[in-house]
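Is NAP placement plausible here? Inputs below.
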Amino acid sequence: MTVTYDYTGRAVLVTGGTRGIGAGIAAAFLAAGAEVTVCARTPGADEHGGGIRFVRADVRVPADVERLIEGFDRLDVVVNNAGGSPYAPLAGTSPRLHARVVELNLTAPLLVSQYAYPLLAAARGAVVMIGSSSGARPSPGTSAYGAAKAGLHHLARCLAAEWAPVVRVNTVVVGLAATERAAGHYGGHGDERMGAAIPAGRMATPGDVARACLWLAAPGYVTGAEVRVDGGGEIPAWRHLASGDSP
Ligand SMILES: NC(=O)c1ccc[n+]([C@@H]2O[C@H](COP(=O)([O-])OP(=O)(O)OC[C@H]3O[C@@H](n4cnc5c(N)ncnc54)[C@H](OP(=O)(O)O)[C@@H]3O)[C@@H](O)[C@H]2O)c1
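Reply from A.M.:
I modeled the complex. Tokens:
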């Protein structure tokens, strides 16, 4: 069975669409016929031979976001994907680092959505937030990130109610995902080892996340929802300990 989407004539913005999950989302919308714009602080290695428009913008900076949105004459979909955090245990790290993490993962998606709202309303469009399982369970070592993502999930529910029925707002809650930079984040371990922690047996790919975005951004009834793309979550460490395996 094949599910296809036709986004011909639709304009889509993917923040942080130059690499990792965002690049996969941008490629999926491009393949579905959309006019895709990505933004980041630096251009990606490959913008699909010019098929994807790149705008340099730091989504934490209001003037950048304003300029970014002014570059559109229509906008159907915003995917708030730019995000992330270094491993940063709260004790001993700078208040500025934690403030920047909250800005990137919570305030920036709020700003981008706010500036985009008039165009999205005109198109009866949709916002998709890229959330994280770190915002749905304790996230030791990335507490500010986890708290910001939990806030992002709630922001989506609030905006969904505030902007209904004109603009739909949903969240994709991503579990462990295999990207260019993921191995560094997961202690140098790639999909083979990390897959043992996931019921589905492997990490999510950018394509897995993109398919949920294509569905949530297409016209429909669903709003204020969280769709978990996490392969069933994470197998608790005590299960490995109880069975004598190392987690
Ligand atoms: N990878 C995972 O395992 C995982 C799991 C759960 C959720 N997620 C979420 O999925 C999203 C993408 O993660 P990823 O792993 O694909 O990240 P990534 O590989 O680090 O890519 C992040 C993207 O965001 C851009 N970006 C970062 N800071 C920015 C800023 N201030 N303004 C504009 N763009 C900015 C980056 O480009 P520049 O650096 O050039 O700006 C890049 O294009 C994030 O929201 C992350 O929290 C990831």
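Short version: The chain has a mean pLDDT of 94.
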